[in-house]
Amino acid sequence: MSTQVTEQEQAETEEESTHQRRRLEEKAERQEVRDRMRERAETDLEQADTVFDLKVFRYDPDIPEKEEPRFDTFPVPFTKGMTVLDALMYARDHYDSSLTFRHSCRQAVCGSDALFVNGTQHLGCKTQVVDLGDSEGVPGQIRVEPLPHQEVVKDLVVDMEHFYDQMDAVEPYFDADELPSGDLEEQRQTRENREKIKMSSRCIWCGACMSSCNIAAGDNEYLGPAAINKAYKFAMDDREGEDRKQERLEIIEQEHGVWRCQTQFSCTEVCPKDIPLTEHIQELKREAVKNNLKFW
User: Fold this and answer.
1) Which of 67, 95, 211, 230 has the fewest CB atoms within 10 Å, i.e. the most exposed one?
2) pLDDT tens digits, residue range 67-81?
3) Taking the CA of residue 243 as centre, how many other CA atoms within 13 Å lie in the half-sphere pointing to its CB?
4) Is 202 within 8 Å of 275 (Cβ atoms)?
5) Is the dihedral of CA 107, 108, 113, 116 positive or negative?
6) Is the pLDDT of residue 242 over 90?
């Protein structure tokens, strides 16, 4: 019996030793890759015609020595066509693999890389570094922070749950009174109506408008420009059922709906898809007024 226990303990010890050795080897490999990338960065900096400083907000609540917010600065060699997202990826790949930010499509469609760049909301993949430079297009220092007015999860990543809740609050789905009788018949829409709501359908749920809105910053229950724009898309669709449109107007004309907007145009200014958000909010205000007019 004791022999079996001893053999089992020995096997466990050997397994633990093997596991630890594997972890050390993997750690050494990662360090080798980091060293190689840093050497490559040094070469890139020597050969580059222009180098700019990328100043990035850092915060990691899971690591005691990093839970105090700070800024790290990375020298980045400028290349033609470089975007802010490209610069962040260069810093992550060549200097610090723990640098955390969201990105996906890199085509200004997914909306995942909305950032606060040099004091303004931008999409990282759409913002050219050269546009942030001086009159000759030479970048100096670029400061990148997470979207304001939202809880920071880590580095440049913010918690989007509240934003999604506000979008869901306007019930963003189409609901017609009647559907076409034929299985293959389309739900037709006039060209004029399509043109009217076309811009509102371009929203990519990036949250830049919500982050720029001073009202949303002070009123956590305010629906916000993105959600109200989504309500506009359906309320103004002539295929929407009348009863459903009435219900949607009741949602957006509540205390924390369209009437909280103070027409500051900040949301319109930062929208990466050029949606006239303030205009849509004002039109919904007019619809809400007409909806409550009584003639007798």
Assistant:
1) 67
2) 899 999 999 999 999
3) 4
4) yes
5) positive
6) no
